[in-house]
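Translate structure to sequence.
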């Protein structure tokens, strides 16, 4: 089994999984296929409506505020 890009070239590095997915072809190879713009928009919409994702985003904002406050206190 090989891991290929959409053009059939061997992938030697790590692909960006947020931009596509792997599909298995008839030879048993995994082919990295990029998402369409419509698929990316749908994924983003699903992530934004996910309560766990909302909590993670809110926690990240709080973390950023705390980091800024800590930097301000050091100066």
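Result:
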């Amino acid at each position: 089994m090989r891991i290929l890009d959409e053009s059939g070239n061997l992938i030697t590095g790590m692909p960006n999984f947020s931009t596509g997915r792997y599909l298995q072809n008839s030879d048993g190879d995994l082919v990295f296929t990029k998402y369409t713009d419509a698929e990316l928009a749908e994924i983003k919409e699903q992530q934004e409506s996910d309560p766990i994702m909302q909590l993670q985003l809110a926690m990240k904002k709080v973390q950023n505020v705390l980091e800024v406050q800590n930097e301000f206190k050091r100066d």
